[in-house]
Design a protein that fits this description.
Methyltransferase, Cobalt-precorrin-4 Transmethylase, Domain 2, transferase, 7 helices, 20% strand, 10 strands, five-stranded parallel β-sheet, 4pyrrol_Mease, uroporphyrinogen-III C-methyltransferase, Uropor_MeTrfase_CS, five-stranded mixed β-sheet, alpha/beta, Cobalt-precorrin-4 Transmethylase, domain 1
């Protein structure tokens, strides 16, 4: 099990890993606990979508190691190398921060890293982050729930590998619940829309695409199941897809 947050005076005794969620993009959405972890770091292993400003919170002498995965490249060999690097640095007695976009346990493979650390006897703590699944729509003026419109929401990974492996029951749930959110799914938008129609969403259902959520360059495009594909060229991935009547609430806020 994860241990409580480790105090700075303990860091010289043994290696330690923080699995830190950096939030959805805006560096100011890093939590105070995440900031504290960065300020103690000897090594920071960071992902592709991390705001560069966050690395400035680590001490000047800390190593900053980019371990991001490029879109379309196989992820498992890279993930195995990350596991090994976390253990290797911790075994040298270092305080290691694994800085991940959003929340480390929401499509961030943080639980895999935690399990690997435990298997190798490395102490660690999970520092939750603000997930883009909620903050992204919120920053675009779209609540994932709204009284009288949507009483619940579901979140799925939309990228190629994950979407190919979603069982039909998941696709059905995504169409039946009030709000469906797909992360990293722009390349799979036609399949996502097809499944929404297959399981009963009407063509008039509102859809939003949100790119660079919470950042100054944030861009939002809205349409319906029938029209959104014609607008997707206006959005550069990665982006969040929101499907459901809550998208219309944006016009009221």
């Amino acid at each position: 099990m994860p241990v409580p947050f480790k105090q700075s005076e303990e860091r010289v005794m043994s290696g330690f890993v923080y699995l830190v969620g950096a939030g959805p993009g805006d560096p100011e959405l890093l939590t105070l606990k995440g900031l504290k972890a960065l300020q103690q770091a000897d090594v920071v292993l960071y992902d592709r979508l991390i705001a560069p400003e966050l690395l400035d919170y680590a001490p000047a002498g800390a190593e900053r190691l980019y371990v991001g995965k490029d879109l379309g490249s196989p992820s498992q060999p890279r993930q195995d190398a990350i596991h090994e690097a976390l253990v290797a640095h911790a075994q040298q007695g270092k305080t290691v921060v694994r800085l991940k976009g959003g929340d480390p346990f929401v499509f961030g493979r943080g639980s895999e890293e935690a399990a690997y650390l435990r298997q190798h006897g490395i102490s660690y703590a999970v520092v939750p982050g603000v997930s883009s699944a909620i903050a992204g729509p919120g920053a675009a003026g779209i609540p994932v729930t709204h009284r009288g419109i949507s009483a619940g929401f579901c979140v799925f990974a939309g990228q190629e590998g994950e979407a190919n492996h979603l069982p039909e029951s998941h696709w059905q749930a995504a169409a039946l619940i009030g709000t469906a959110v797909f992360l990293m799914g722009v390349a799979r938008l036609p399949k996502i829309l097809e499944k929404q129609r297959q399981y009963g969403r009407p063509e008039s259902t509102p859809v939003a695409l949100i790119a660079s959520a919470t950042c100054p360059e944030q861009r939002v495009v809205t349409g319906t199941l029938a029209t959104i594909e014609s607008l997707v060229s206006e959005i550069l991935p990665p982006a969040i897809i929101v499907i459901g009547d809550v998208v219309g609430v944006r016009e009221l806020l």
